[in-house]
């Protein structure tokens, strides 16, 4: 995808990130027939709390935020969440770029994320990026989630060339 810059989001970007989240999660809500899922109910204050807890990256094209991802480290694990790309820009590799940037920002031994078991495109992206399924859980609304993990491969001398 040309002319897209990925950078750390700033506090003043949070409203635009939240609007993008509401747009991007419409398809997820449709899959489940539930428009009350957490990403569509999240408030700006809750998002700002996440901003202060970890890293939020933004993908910008022509001055507009068209993608985002969140990550925070706890112990030896980086938890990655809400990888979102505007529907008009999906399928062009931006999600993969955002995921790789998030992994690079908070380098730890292990990465973990989750998605709905019905989110085939997400599962394909994560598995293609080296994530393996390790657990499934059903939330109180009856939505089944797949948890995936990836071990961080330490760089070797060969990688430096």
Mean pLDDT: 91
Order of helices and strands: EHHHHEEEHEHEE
Instruction: List how many beta strands DSSP finds.
Output: 7
- The residue ranges in which pLDDT falls below 50 over 5 or more consecutive positions are 156-161
Tally the helices: what do you get?
A: 6
- Strand arrangement, major sheet: 1-2-3-4-5-7-6
Helix and strand topology:
Elements: E1 5-8, H1 14-24, H2 26-32, H3 38-41, H4 44-53, E2 55-61, E3 64-74, E4 77-85, H5 94-105, E5 110-116, H6 120-128, E6 132-138, E7 144-151
Parallel strand pairs: 4-5
Antiparallel strand pairs: 1-2, 2-3, 3-4, 5-7, 6-7
Written description of the protein model:
It is a single chain. The chain has helices at residues 14-24, 26-32, 38-41, 44-53, 94-105, 120-128; strands spanning 5-8, 55-61, 64-74, 77-85, 110-116, 132-138, 144-151. Strand 3 and strand 4 form a beta hairpin. The chain is built from six helices and seven strands; from the N terminus they run βααααβββαβαββ. Helix content is 33%, strand content 33%. It is globular. The chain has a seven-stranded mixed β-sheet with strand order 1-2-3-4-5-7-6, sandwiched between helices. It has 161 residues and is of the alpha+beta class.
Give a quick precis of the structure:
This protein is an alpha+beta fold.
Keywords:
7-stranded mixed sheet; globular; 161 residues; 6 helices
């Amino acid at each position: 995808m040309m002319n897209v810059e990925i950078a750390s989001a700033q506090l003043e970007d949070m409203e635009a990130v939240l609007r993008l989240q509401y747009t991007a999660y419409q398809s997820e809500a449709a899959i489940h027939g539930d428009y009350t899922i957490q990403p569509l109910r999240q408030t700006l204050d809750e998002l700002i709390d996440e901003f202060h807890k970890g890293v939020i990256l933004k993908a910008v094209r022509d001055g507009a935020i068209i993608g985002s991802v969140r990550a925070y480290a706890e112990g030896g694990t980086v938890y990655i969440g809400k990888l979102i790309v505007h529907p008009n820009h999906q399928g062009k590799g931006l999600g993969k770029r955002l995921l790789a940037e998030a992994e690079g920002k908070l380098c730890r031994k292990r990465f973990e994320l989750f998605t709905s078991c019905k989110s085939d495109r997400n599962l394909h992206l994560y598995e293609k990026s080296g994530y393996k399924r390790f657990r499934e859980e059903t939330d109180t609304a009856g939505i089944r989630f797949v948890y995936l993990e990836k071990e961080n491969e330490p760089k070797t001398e060969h990688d430096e060339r």
